[in-house]
Design goal:
By secondary structure, the protein is an alpha+beta fold. The chain has three domains: 6-89, Ubiquitin-like (UB roll) (Roll); 106-270, Alpha-Beta Complex (Cathepsin B, Chain A), CATH 3.90.70; 281-311, no CATH class. It is built from nine helices and 14 strands. The chain has helices at 26-37, 83-89, 126-136, 144-156, 164-167, 171-178, 187-197, 255-270, 293-304; strands at 6-10, 13-17, 44-48, 53-54, 74-79, 113-117, 200-205, 210-214, 222-228, 233-240, 250-251, 281-284, 290-292, 309-311. Strands 6, 7, 8, 9, 10 and 11 form a six-stranded mixed beta sheet that branches. Strands 2-1-5-3-4 form a five-stranded mixed beta sheet. A hairpin with a 2-residue loop joins strand 1 and strand 2. Helix 4 (144-156) crosses helix 7 (187-197). The chain is globular and about 65 Å long. Hydrolase that can remove conjugated ubiquitin from proteins and may therefore play an important regulatory role at the level of protein turnover by preventing degradation. GO terms for molecular function: cysteine-type deubiquitinase activity; zinc ion binding. Its main location: cytoplasm. It comes from Gryllus longicercus. InterPro entries: OTU1_Ubl, OTU_dom, Papain-like_cys_pep_sf, Ubiquitin-like_domsf, Znf-C2H2_OTU1-like_C.
Length: 314
Amino acid sequence: MAGFALRMKSKSGQTVIKGLTPQSTVAELKGKLSSLTNIREKALHVLSGFPPKPLDLKQSDITLEAIGITSGDTLIIEERDNPGEEKQTDKESTAPQMERRIHIQESQLERPGILMRKVVPADNSCLFTSIGFVLGGKVDPTCAPFMRQIIAETVAGDSGTYSEAILGQPNHSYCEWILKPDSWGGAIELAVLSQFYGIEIAVVDTLNAIINRFGEDQRYAQRVFLVFDGIHYDPLYLEPFEGGSVQTIFLTTDERILQEAEQLALEAKSSRQYTDVHRFSLKCLVCQEMLVGQVEAQQHAKATGHKTFGETAS
């Protein structure tokens, strides 16, 4: 079939897979993927669709059409020693950033409920843990290294877009920095992850009572919400009044939930549920020096090389 092509994302980058048809077998697909990624066929873990879900590749003779793969689909490739066994023995083990168990169903649309904040650890990776929660339905800090790797590879692969002027440091230095577990994420990281996952990320800024929408210009079909208080990110979810599964992914056409998020931002600002980045108290966790505000922390980091800080009571 002319024109049949698939997109593939893996740790080594993105590429287009050609030479297959809807009647190609799973065995042929696995052979292609193994050749392109240098991952053994038995260790291939393949996700597709949105939200991404694992593909069952156990039946080697079944066709791509039969397992629901169509031209234009994006396949996300991971390497796992025993992907089949892992799925059987621990259904919760799939990394939350790659698979969601909570799906938007017709019965969930326009459900009455309340927008709630899920508190995640303040461990310098709160942004990544929060995104992992809205995509995977659980708090799992182990998703952070994977997301940091995505960001580093994306930035390194596009030095034109991600120039020193944008990053505030040379491209290669930024890539080394973001891979460190004590580096905080922000606007650049949100933009990269929004593009990678193909979803709008709306950040409720309680300091300024506004919502910053990453990926808004891409017209994505779905949206997730985070809340930011000046130094810390948490995910938001809808708790339905009538019980049942919480909802963390919403249609971008759902103006009702966007208005609720806007109201939340106003209420949080009026009740001072934010951290003033210019006045909050910090302690260097390396030398224990007490600091005040973001500027002092940045100056201290530049002078000493210390980059691990913790907030303290004012």
